[in-house]
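Appendix C. Worked example: Pyrrolo-quinoline quinone repeat domain-containing protein
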Amino acid sequence: MAGPEGGYALGVDVGTSNTVAVLRWPDGRTRPLLFDGQPIMPSAVFLDDAGLHTGRDAQRLAQGDPSRYEPNPKRRVDEPNVLLGGREVPTADLLAAVLGTVARTAVEAVGFLPPAAVTHPAAWGARRRDVLIAAIARAGWPPVGDHGTKLLPEPVAAARYFAEVLRRPVPVGASLAVFDFGGGTLDIAVVRNEGSGFTVIGSGGVAELGGLDIDAALAEHLGRMLAPAYPQAWQVLAQPATAGQWRSRRQFWEDVRGAKEMLSRTAAAPVPVPGIDQAVHLTREELEQLVTPLLRRGVYEAAAVIGACGLTPSQLAGLFLVGGSSRVPLVARLLHADLGIAPTVLEQPELPVAEGALAELAPRSRAVASVPAVAATAQVTAPPFGPETAVAPTSGPGLPVSSVPVSPSGAPVSGVPGMPYSPAPPIAPRAPRRPIYRRPVLWVAAAVVALAGVVAAAALVLLGNDEVDFQPVAEVDRIEFPDPAPYWVYTDMVGDRAYLAFESNSKQLEILAVEPATAKVLWREKTLSTADRWDGIAALPNAVVAFQSSSIPSTQTRDMAVHDPANGKQMWHRLIAAGDTVYPFEDVLVLVEASEQRLIGLDLKTGKTRWEHQNPGKEQGLTGTAVYPVQTVADVSGPANAAGRPFAPVTDDDQRFVQIGADRSATVIDARDGKELKKRTNVANPTDEVVAYNGRLLVATAESGYRLSGYDLDTMGEPANLYTAPNPDHRLEVLTMCGETRACLLDSVGSDSKSTSVVAIDMEKGGELWRKPAPDADLIGHFGEQVVARATSGDNQFRIFDPDGNEILKREGAVGRVDSSNLLLFDEISPAADNYSVAGTHAGSAEVIEMGQLKDVKSETCSWNQAYIVCGGSEDFLVARFARD
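Step 2, the predicted output written as C-alpha cells:
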C-alpha cells in the first residue's frame, strides 16, 4: 500500500474508544482524516462471516449480535485472543483492522499510504508494543523502524504539539504534564525536554476512567429521575430485549453523549428519551455534581504522578489537556483549583496527539531545544474558569481524617497512610478532599466515597469554653526554609507545641518542634529513613509519627517512624503496607493490616506487639473490616482543621473500639490489651454507616431509604430503632453525633443536592427533632450546641444552626474549630501560596470578627490552638497570633 511520499505524512492516535488520524500536506497544512464524514472513528470492531468491520459500521452491526462486538480492542492488549461470536480472534488482528481502515482512508485521500507515526501509551512495555507492531504489519503498513512506520509515546506526541505547534515554551530541562482524558481511559504523564527531544520521566493514570464513565453517570441519573414516573419506558432502555429496543437504547446513549458535549458550551441541554413525549433537560450544574467524584480521581492521580517525578505543579512548564473528555469545563477547573496551575486545553482536544506525532516524521524543529532555560507559565486556553474550588483538607498532613474510615465500606482506606484519629472523627464530606500536594495518591478513596456515600462521624464539643478574644493577626516570626525551598510542607499542633515538617534535599523528612508564643525552635531532627515522597506527620500528646508516602505498589512497604516529642529522636519504626491504617490510643497504636486481615496492638513507646486479632470472617474466606474507636466529648473539645481533624487528639479517655467484621459481627475491644469485651452477631456490614460515640453504637442501614439503630456498647443488647427515612427516595449523606443525646445527619432526596437538609435526631426517645434546608451541603460539623453545614463546591457556603435549628449565620468559605465556643473562618482553603483572610465567631452569635490576612501561606497547611496559628508558605513557615493568651 505504500507509495511515493510526495511530502505527505500521517499521524495516528489509536485510542481506547476512538481513533484519530491527521494528514500533513506537502505545503505544511494539516487536517484530520474523515471517517464517514467525521474526524473521529470509534475503535470498535465487529466480526461476521464477511470478516472484521470497524468504526461506526461495527457499532451498527453490534445491534444485531453484541457477542461479535469488541468496542475497545486496545483495552484487550494483554490478552492474546478475544472471543467474538464463539471464535477466538488475535488481539493484534483487531488493532490491525482499525489501522487498516485508517490506511484505506488515507489512500482514498492522497492516492497512497504516506509515511506514518503511530502513538502508544507511555506505560506500555515491550510486550504490549510488540502487539501494536504486529498489528501495524498485518494492516499492510511498512514495518516499524527507522525507515518505516514510527512509534512514539502519546505524551511525547502531545508535548511536541504543545511546543512546536502551539509554540508554548518548554525550556531545556523543564517538564510538561500531559493529562490525556479519552473516552475509555485516563493517562497521565510527565515529559522532560532533554534538548534533543522529549522523554517520559513518569506516568500513571486510571484505566477505568473516561468519557464513557461520565456518560454512564448521566444515564444512571436520568434513570433515577425517569424510572418512578415512566417505569415501562425506562425498563426498555435499561434491559432491551428486541432489536428495536436495542436501537432505542443506542440512540438514547448517543443523545446522552451529545447532551454532555453540549453542556461544555451551554448551561442546559435536552435529552430525548424514547417512549417519552417530552425531552428531559440536564443542566451543567447537574453534570458537574455527578461527575466531580469521578474527576477528582483524575486530579489526585495527576498530583501523584507529578509528585512521583520529584516535581511540584508550580515547577512545570505547563499542564496540557488532551483527549475528547478534556473539553468538559470542570476538568480544567478542578485541575486549576487543586494543582494551582492553569491547564491548556483546545477546542478539539482529540487532535493534538495525532498531530504531534507528525513531528516525528520531519526534521526536528529547534523550537524545543532552543528555548531559553527560564521558567515558563502556561496560559489558559480552556473555557473561562469559574471561581476556584476551595480545597477542604480532610486530614492533617499526610493522615486519614478520622477514626471513621473514609471509604464506602467503612474499612480503612486502601492506599491511605497514617492515622485516623481515634478520639476525634472529623467534619467529613461525602466526597472527602485530601490535601492533594501532600497526599496525591488519595484519589482512589475520594472518588469511591463520593460515588457510594460515606459515613463520616463528627462529634460535637459539649465542654464549655470561654469566648476567645479574637485580635487582628499579628506575625510572631517566620521560620525560613533551607535553599532551595521545599514544596512539600506540613504542620501540626498539640497544646502549646507546634510541629513543622518539610521534605529535605536528602529525601529525609525534617521535623521541627516550635514554641508558638516566641517562634523558638525547641528541637530539629531528620528521619533516619529516606523516601522520594512523604505523607507528613501526625502529632500526638506523647509521640510524633512520620509516614513515608503511600503512593507505592501494594506489594511494597513504607516506613512509619515514631519520634519522641521531648527531643525529636526516633523511638522506633515499623514497615507497613500502603493500605495499612493506624489508630492511636493512650499508649497503644492499633494497626489494621489490610493484606494480612488482622489487627495488631503496638506499644506506643517501643513498637512491640501487645496483642493480635484475625479479622472476623477470615476463616470463612470473607474479607473486609471496619474499625471505629469510641469517641467521647473530650475527643472533640479542642482545635480542629477545616475538615474537622483535631490538632490535639485526646488519647487518654475511652480506650475501646468497635470492629465490624465481614461476617456482620460487631466486637467491642479494649485497645490496651486486645480483650474482647462484648460481641454481637448480625449487626452491620463493613459497608454500613456506623458511629461509636459516648457509649453508643449507631448503625445506619439502607432499607427503604435508610434506618438508624442504636446499641448500648456496655451490653450490646437489642437495638433501639431511632429513626427511619420518610420514604425510599431519601438518602443518608453524612451521619454524626451533635450532642450528648442527639445525632445529626445530612439527608437528600434522590440525587438532588439542592434538596439536602440537616436533620437532628433524638437519641433517647427516637424521632426527628428538627429538619432545616442546607442546599448542596456535603460536610457537617459542630461546636458547642451549634451545627455547621458546609458545601465544599458550588457556592462554597457554610451555614451555622443554633440548637433549635435556626440558621444564625451563612457565609462563603470554610470553618475550623478553635474550641467548643469559637470558630475560625477562612475565605478559602487552598494548597496555593497566597494571602488568605481569616475571621472569628463565637457560639450563639452571628457576629463575624475580621482579623486580617495570613500572608504568603498555603492555607490548607495551617494548624492552630486557642491563640496561635502556624502555616507553611512558599519560602518559610508563618507563626502568628490571632487571640490574646
